[in-house]
From TrEMBL:
Stated name of the protein: Immunoglobulin domain-containing protein
Any one GO molecular function term: transmembrane signaling receptor activity
Keyword Transmembrane helix attributed: yes
Annotated compartments: Membrane
Record-level GO cellular component terms: plasma membrane
Region described as Disordered: 225-248, 308-327, 357-398
InterPro entries: CD300_family_receptors (IPR050671), Ig-like_dom_sf (IPR036179), Ig-like_fold (IPR013783), Ig_sub (IPR003599), Ig_V-set (IPR013106)
Keywords: Membrane, Transmembrane, Transmembrane helix
Keyword Transmembrane part of the UniProt annotation: yes
UniProt cross-references to Pfam families, sorted A to Z: V-set
Taxon lineage: Eukaryota, Metazoa, Chordata, Craniata, Vertebrata
SMART domains linked to this entry: IG (SM00409)
Length: 398
């Protein structure tokens, strides 16, 4: 629990001060030191001031409050400011007789009207950015400062400096548009941090107003990978170098692995291509062999010739006679093969041929003619007394 303190206002107390703090941002209240070993801060509540921190105690922090000292002042910082921190604070000293005397009154106001921007430039780049300021700051000196706490941040450049366009930071004030242009040249990693655009207060009883916050994070430049080097003196040293680079994560090891993987992929592609070519060639050979076999098969076709006796009561069963049809001497003529059936009727459709038997055991020759080509066949005729008639049926044409 905080202690309640009854204050007596010192006749030589410091001027009351109005300090503006910003939500979620750090702020610091400062007081000048006196010839006293005990100093304190308290917050006014009704007619009593509740003690927050004192140099008499070994405790230097209390929640979001932290007490610090310098050779000429003692300060109380408030982190992560919220609206609950708004109010009246007093700083004072404790006399040797145990009395507490107030030295300064601080009115703390909390606002959240400033704008926040973030930038991530690369090392070596020039970073330009802009700050808009309100009309109330038209005639005030504008400045840039760096630090998490704007109430105590250190100024870098201002509009009143004669060389505000030279050096690492430059500032241009466009008063018609109420716009500040700030340029940070050749940024480095040390330039990372929080920057504030503010204006100097013309009233010593009030703190400086701020209207812009920039959070800069400088990114290191990307390194260009160097090509890998392969030793020539020994062939066994290359794997050692590659393994070492891989263990240490160096760019040479990464590039070596990439090259090896690329070579393996190319070899696999070539192997697949060769397999495809071999497969196509074998398929083509099979098709050619099949076509040749079909052609040979078509050249030699045997026909079946059935003979039926002229007399139906002879009692002899039909005899099957096989004949070989030889291709004609004319190459352009196509081959036609048919089945010749010897029947006892002469009025069947087809081509009719009269076979005359000179003797019972002699061979009969017949010629079957059609409109396109001539086909010859040898027929072995069994013994018969009368001439036989046969009908030749043409099966197909080529």
């Amino acid at each position: 629990m905080s202690d309640k303190v009854d204050l007596e206002v010192d006749k030589g107390c410091q001027t009351p001060f109005i300090q503006t703090a910003y939500r979620t941002v750090k702020t610091t209240i400062s007081c000048n030191k006196r010839n006293s070993r005990v100093m304190f801060f308290c917050k006014e509540k009704d007619s009593i001031c509740e003690d927050i921190l004192s140099t008499k105690s070994s405790l230097k922090s209390n929640g979001s409050f932290t007490l610090t000292e310098t050779s000429s002042s003692f300060n109380m910082s408030i982190s992560n400011v919220s609206s609950q921190h708004a109010g009246v604070y007093w700083c004072g000293v404790e006399t040797d007789k145990g009395y507490q005397a107030a030295l300064r009154k601080i009115q703390l106001m909390v606002e959240d009207t400033f704008k926040i921007f973030t930038k991530s430039p690369t090392v070596g780049e020039n970073l330009p950015y802009w700050c808009k300021y309100p009309k109330s700051s038209d005639e005030k000196t504008k400045f840039i400062c760096k630090g998490e706490d704007p109430s105590i941040c250190k100024q870098i450049v201002s509009t009143t400096q004669s060389n505000n366009n030279a050096g690492k930071f430059s500032m241009m004030d466009d008063k018609e548009k109420r716009n500040l242009t700030i340029t940070v040249r050749n940024v480095t990693t040390e330039d990372s941090g929080t920057y504030w655009c503010g204006a100097e207060s013309n009233d010593p009883k009030q703190s400086n107003p701020f209207f812009h916050k920039l959070v800069m994070t400088v990114v290191p430049a990307k390194k260009t990978p160097t090509p890998p080097t392969f030793p020539v003196s020994s062939t066994q040293s290359t794997p050692t170098t590659t393994a070492s680079a891989g263990r240490h994560g160096g760019p040479e090891g990464i590039i070596t692995v990439t090259v090896c993987v690329s070579v393996v992929v190319v070899l696999l592609l070539l192997f697949v291509l060769i397999l495809i070519l071999i497969y196509k060639r074998r398929s083509k050979n099979k098709r050619n062999a099949a076509a040749a076999a079909q052609h040979i098969k078509e050249e030699y076709i045997y026909e079946e010739i059935q003979e039926h006796p002229h007399h139906p009561d002879s009692g002899n069963a039909p005899n099957t006679i096989y004949a070989t049809a030889n291709s004609p001497t004319n190459p352009s003529a196509s081959l036609h093969y048919s089945t010749v059936n010897f029947t006892n009727c002469s009025d069947k459709a087809g081509a009719e041929t009269l076979l005359t038997k000179p003797s019972s055991s002699a061979c009969e020759y017949s010629t079957v003619k059609n409109s396109q080509s001539q086909t010859s066949s040898t027929v072995n005729q069994p013994s018969s007394e009368d001439p036989l008639y046969s009908t030749v049926n043409k099966s197909r044409e080529q």
